[in-house]
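Whether sequence alone determines local backbone shape is best considered at the level of individual chains. In the encoding step, the backbone of a single protein was reduced to a row of integers, each denoting a local shape. For completeness, the protein is quoted in full, as a sequence line and a line of structure tokens.
***
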Amino acid sequence: MRSWQIERRKRTRHLIELGGLVVKAGIVDLTGGDRAIILGALLWMAEKLKGDQGEQARKAWSATGKQAFAATHKDTAQTLPVARR
């Protein structure tokens, strides 16, 4: 496989993962999948990050995201069957 194909696959996987975050956050359900609303919200978020309160927003959103990932991991770990030896 050529290097550009490998890079393209990496980029595609990254974009799919980012889209999954939009779904995981409930944004698709809350907006009815309206792309204009989703893009508007993302643009608002980008402006917030560029502003005076950007670092504060970044820290708050990072903490919230980490909590959500931890909760998801905890829920998944509790529902997965224990491997038998």
Observations:
- The helical segments are 3-24, 27-31, 35-50, 54-79.
- The CA atoms of residues 68 and 74 lie 10 Å apart.
